[in-house]
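Input/output pair, single chain:
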Amino acid sequence: MSAGLWTTSVGSFPKPPELLKARADHAAGRIGAEELQVLERGATERWIRFQEEIGVDLLVDGEMYRGDMATFFAEELEGFEIGGLVRSYGNRYYRKPIATQSVRRTHPMTVDQWQFAQSLTGRPVKGMLTGPYTIADWSFDEHYESRRAFVLDLARAIHEEAADLVAAGARFVQVDEPAASARMDELPLVAEAMAIVTEGLDAHTITHICYGDFNRAYPKMLDIPVDQIDLELTNSDFDLLDRFRETPFSKAIGLGVVDSHSHRIESVEEVVRGIKLALEVLPADRIFVDPDCGLKTRTVEEAEGKMRAIVDGVRQVREELGIGADLPSVVVGAP
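Output:
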């Protein structure tokens, strides 16, 4: 029996109300770091157990220890100061990092959190990093003479973190680049930086790109040196799949089949439809099925409902087509 159609998630899950309150209390100095970590790890274990319960193949830690995906890393890297609040979208705000000197990594940033999450399960847990292009794009630069120099210094720092994750045992490492689709003319810089990040990594490497003009980015995005590209497809009703008929998609794909920015929980039938559309142009052994993006903006109930729909939809298609679920240690999608 062939294998494929593995289930996973993009990375983030919603934080429970008690953790949101604790993070605000910690920021205000009302509770200490140790008390906050206990709650973060409790929430992490809850999401690991949920994913195991419903049968997710490739797990994520849910990012319970992070606020904004770029600011978290900027706070851990040398060379940044953290500025005031700016609006990301809707009513969501983050503190904008400011590069005031050369950026470098001085210590592991996510390895302990990954090791904790992996210790809770026998299933693989992804190492989760924010990519150098996105950190730079979402920051102010008051130090570097060029955007490229800023991005490549960040790439070297993120590579060190990725290498430590792999050394700790991570078989899958995801480097999120949601900003990559914002400027099509800078895709070569995204690829150059990712080549530094992924160099020599003995792991299945993934990048997540979301909510951009993918039709303009394709097939140029295939130049990004990773084994898998994770794409939101539900939001655009899977129209990018038509481009794959003209120019084949040569990597593994993270197939977004539920809309992360909708409160509506998709039906199993909708998930099955998306998977079957993808199977018309992609082999099952190169498809990882997941939401369009991280689920942190949904309620806990919505996130759970969307993940259940994904797992149930994949299970139905596997049964219909006789596809197994064995997850290989490393899946290399690129030729």
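The mean pLDDT is 91. The two ends are 23 Å apart (CA to CA).
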